[in-house]
Each structure stands twice: as C-alpha cells, then as structure tokens.
Amino acid sequence: MTATVPAAPSGPAPATVRTPPLAEPSAWHAIRLTVNGRPVAAEVESRLLLSDFLRDRLGLTGTHTGCEHGVCGACTVLLDGEPARTCLTLAVQCEGADLRTVEGLAPDDAPLTPVQRAFHECHGMQCGFCTPGFVMTATALTEQPARPDEEQVADALSGHLCRCTGYRNIRRAVCRALDERFGE
Amino acid sequence: MKPTPFDYTAPRTVGDALALLADDSRDAKVLAGGQSLIPMLNMRLARPEVLVDITRIPELGRVVVDSDGCLRIGAAVRQSRAAADPAVRDGWPLLADAIGLIGHPQIRGRGTVCGSLAHHDPAAELPTAALALDARFVVAGPRGTRTVEAADFFVATFATAVEPDELLTEVVFPPLAAHHGRAFEELTRRHGDFATVGVAVLLERDPASDTVRRARVVCCGAGPTPVRLTAAEAALTGTDAGPAARAEAARAALGALAPADDVHSTAEHRRESAAHLLVRACTTAWERTR
Ligand SMILES: Cc1cc2nc3c(=O)[nH]c(=O)nc-3n(C[C@H](O)[C@H](O)[C@H](O)COP(=O)(O)OP(=O)(O)OC[C@H]3O[C@@H](n4cnc5c(N)ncnc54)[C@H](O)[C@@H]3O)c2cc1C
Ligand code: FES
Ligand code: FES
Predict the structure, then answer these.
(1) Which of A19, B14, B81, B240 has its CA 20 to 30 A from that of B181?
(2) Residue ranges of the 2Fe-2S ferredoxin-type domain (chain A) (predicted)?
(3) N-to-C CA span, chain A
(4) Does A168 contact ligand 3 (Cβ within 6 A)?
(5) Residue A146 touches chain B, beta carbons under 8 Å
(6) Cα separation of A30 and B63, whole Å?
(7) Nearest CA-CA partner of B175 in B285, B290, B68
(8) Could you say which architecture CATH assigns to the domain B7-53?
C-alpha cells in the first residue's frame, strides 16, 4: 500500500511512502487529510496511531513519542488548530483533518517562527526530546485571539513533561513569544 | 504499546451507530474522544474487535438550552467546547469548573463530556458534578430510549447503567435557582493529575432569610462512585453557612466517608482531606451566592 503526498503548488516534489506489510492486516481504510498545508491520501490500518502514521509513514519524525498513553506530551501536534496527543488519536480518525507538526512551522529555509526563536534564544531545551510538543502547544497559545493569562499558560504547559527539567527556560521562552505576539 | 487489530466505523446517524453496536457479532465498543479508551487499547487492557466512532454524528454535536431551560449536551461534544460555551459558563458554572480540572487542555480538547460520564472513573470530576447538578442521562439502544437519573446512573467503578449495546446520546442538566453558588475543590499530586479526592458543593441562598435553602455536597475519589454526602447537606441547610455550620458539615462528612487505602493515599488521609476541602468549598460557594 502506498501513501502519496501530492505536491503543493510551489512546494517540494511529491513523496511516495511505502508501507511495510503487517502481520495482521485487519481493517484498512482510505483517508485524506492535510498535513502541514499539503494534501495527503493514504490507506491505514484502523489501529495505526497518528504518531506512528506521522513518523513511520510520512517520515515526519519531529513528533516524538515517549509514554504512548497521553501523559508526557512529547507527541503533541495541532489537530484542526488545537493541541492534541497523536498517541491517543488513531490515524483513521483524522479523515478530513488539518494537521500541523513541528516540521510545518518553518519548512525548508523559512525563518523560524517567534516561538521557535524564543526557545532558541532562551535556551528552552536541553536534550530537546520534549521540545516539539512544547513548541506546538506554545504555538497554539500565540494563535489565540487574546493573550492567555499566567494560569492558562501554566495549565497548557502542565500537559508536557520535560525529563531534563528545563521548565524555567521553557516558560521564559513561551512568555517571550507571547510578548512578541501580544505586546508586553 | 500498540493496540491489537480492530475494525473502525464512523456512522453518521444514531440509528446506524445503534445498529452497529447491536448487530455486529464482533465485540464492539463506542469511541468518543479516545482519551481514556485509546490508552487502554495501547496498553492492551481492552481488546475490542470494532470501534464505533460517534463523533461524526451531527445530531450528537449540540449544546443547547431547551424550552424548559434544561442544558442538553450531546455525546460528540468535546469537553473544552462545552466549558467555553457561554450558556454553560453562565447557567451551570460548576460544570465549567469541573471540566477545567480535567487533565490538561490537550486532553480536554479531544475528550467528550459524555465519554467521561460513560467511562466513570471514580476519581473523575464530571460524574461528581453531574450528581451534584441532578443530571439526567438519555440512553438509546435496541430496546428503545430511556432516561436515567444521576443517582441510578453510576453503578460501580468503570460501570454505569449503559449496556454494551447502548449509547449515551446526551446528558441533560436542569436549570439552577437564581441565588446559587458553587465550588469544586480537589487534592492532586500535581496540577492536572486525577484527583486523590475532590468535593463539589452547590449552595442555594434564601435571599429573605440569608440562609441555605438547599445544599448539595458530592465527593469524588472516595468510593467506587461519586458519593453524595446527605448528612453534610443536612448540616448546612437552614444555617448561615458560617464557621460552625461548615465545621458540622465537615464532621458529618468524616462520619459518612469510608474510602479504601490505595497507592495514592491512605483512607484516613482521604477522609481528612475531603473534610478540609469541604470547608473550603462551602466558603467559596457561599460567597458566590451573593
Ligand atoms: C493524561 C490524561 C489525564 C487525564 N486526567 C483526567 C482528569 O484529571 N480527570 C478526568 O475526569 N479525566 C481525565 N482524563 C480522562 C479524559 O477526561 C477522557 O477524555 C474521558 O475520561 C473519556 O472521554 P472520551 O470522550 O475521551 O471517551 P473515550 O476514551 O472515547 O471512551 C471512554 C469509555 O467510554 C465509552 N463511551 C464513550 N462515549 C460513550 C457514549 N456516548 N455512550 C456509551 N459509551 C461511551 C467508551 O466505549 C469507553 O469505554 C485524563 C486522560 C489523560 C490521557
Ligand atoms: S507519547 Fe503521547 S503523550 Fe506521551
Ligand atoms: S529538554 Fe530533555 S526532555 Fe525536555
């Protein structure tokens, strides 16, 4: 089975992704969705997690998986604009969905987004494993119509665990990105 | 940590969903937000053969206030959407408070209100709020549609009045009196964790006498279902909800609660925490009746 990623009008060449044969191909479904602005059509087994679809089928390995039961937040992407766990979402549930992963923020040589720049400048990472998830949640915070208050920021960040315990700088980075977006 | 193989269907009508649940000879399970079910599939604690995704059924996606003033939340409505709804915030703020205590925004954005009620984790906030708010549950199945009162809905840990071939289609919250105040207090190890123990309080003020006309006190994490503390309610009713009345309610709660020891807490620690949370919740709820 194949998943084809048709080229965006001016984007890179189309990619074709080979699917490894599975031992128990039970129920397969054809899905269409948008990933980082590009239409994707694929056939997926019902039990395929969205995290594995992104990483193994589309080669988008920026979405990390840690716990695979919704606790660590490393696998968070924006699903129809809202941060969501890809390890608690089946690929087949994403028919018609609009997905954004960390790769979609500054594709190719595009300049880093304010959130990415703030993480860089504030050193909001140590090993970087948790970073993509934090960056996607922070991106959603900057895309809200009004500036979220301190409590809302803390609430959103509590949905992520950093095993390097770099929370101070992560929080600083998020505040800097919010300052840039909404004014201090 | 990958699920065992299963089939997946996404019906567009309640009728089709019920037919799939009833007619399929395979072991079928309802999939709503997946925020409790998919972890169980990943850990292989559940091995259903078919998932029936109900989130694409348009008639289940509504939050409405009907002509009787009742709030009706359909089974496909996500928790964060319900909490942000102006009708919910204005008319049933205890519900919005309870949702705000569920996990993290990343979870609430996917999880449904009805999914949490149907899942019925004994530490979950929504079953507790539903009992405090006298919610009614509309359950549809091959034997027709019935309405279940909150007191009869929660049967045991992870068990409700919904049979495997049935669907909770909506939850209905009756309107509240004008002079009511509410609070939901809970003890967690970290912000966003499931409650070790939690207390929801709803107080209705009699504006003429400035006393409690009606009290509701419900506890989560202290038994296999949400526990309604009727002795604490009686201790508050007719009083000025002052320190003496609150202390009496806390004593009543200590007498009525019989939680079990578990890895998170001893029974004694749970009971005492519940009593403290109750005092705090009563204070806040009463202030909010003004
Ligand atoms: C990291 C994390 C933290 C969490 N923290 C909390 C917390 O603090 N408090 C809390 O209360 N919850 C918490 N949850 C659970 C979360 O709130 C779930 O969203 C909720 O319990 C289940 O709702 P769902 O829509 O995701 O249901 P699903 O996971 O899709 O389904 C759960 C169960 O209910 C059944 N079901 C669902 N809808 C229906 C229906 N309409 N009719 C019949 N059966 C149905 C399913 O078959 C399944 O058995 C947490 C989850 C995670 C991953
Ligand atoms: S891998 Fe998804 S939350 Fe940990
Ligand atoms: S930077 Fe290492 S886990 Fe967060």
Answers:
(1) B81
(2) 29-105
(3) 51
(4) no
(5) no
(6) 31
(7) B68
(8) 2-Layer Sandwich (3.30)
Segments making up each domain of chain B, as ranges? 7-53, 63-173, 180-287
Q: Which CATH class is domain B63-173?
A: alpha beta
Question: Hey, which residues does B141 pair with through a beta bridge?
Answer: B144
Q: Annotate B124-148 with b (16+ C-beta within 10 A) or e (fewer).
A: bbbbbbbbbbebbbbbbbeeeeeeb
Phi, psi of A115 (to 5 degrees): -65, -45
**Ligand having the closest approach to the CA of A170:** 3
Q: Which of A76, A162, A167 to mutate to test the pocket of ligand 3 (most atoms within 8 A of CB)?
A: A162
Is it true that B63-173 and B180-287 share their CATH fold? no
Residue with tokens 């496909």: B76
- Is the separation of the CB atoms in A125 and A172 below 8 Å? no
Alpha-carbon gap, residue A134 to A62, rounded angstroms: 12
The pLDDT profile of chain B, 290 residues, written as one tens digit per residue, is: 799 999 999 999 999 999 999 987 888 999 999 999 999 999 999 999 999 999 999 999 999 999 999 999 999 999 999 999 999 999 999 999 999 999 999 999 999 999 999 999 999 999 999 999 999 999 999 999 999 999 999 999 999 999 999 999 999 999 999 999 999 999 998 888 889 999 999 999 999 999 999 999 999 999 999 999 999 999 999 999 999 999 999 999 999 999 989 888 899 999 999 999 999 999 999 999 98
**Interchain contact, B6 vs A83, CB within 8 Å:** no
Fold for the domain defined by B180-287: Enolase-like; domain 1 (3.30.390)
Q: How far is CA A25 from CA A82, A93, A121, in A?
A: 31, 18, 47
Q: Measure the CA–CA gap between B58 and B49, rounded to whole angstroms.
A: 25
> Is the predicted pLDDT of residue A151 greater than 50, yes or no?
yes
Q: What type of residue is B146?
A: R
Instruction: Give the whole-angstrom CA distance, residue B106 versus residue A53.
Output: 19
Bridge partner residues of A84 (DSSP):
A77
A28 touches A43 (CB < 8 A): yes
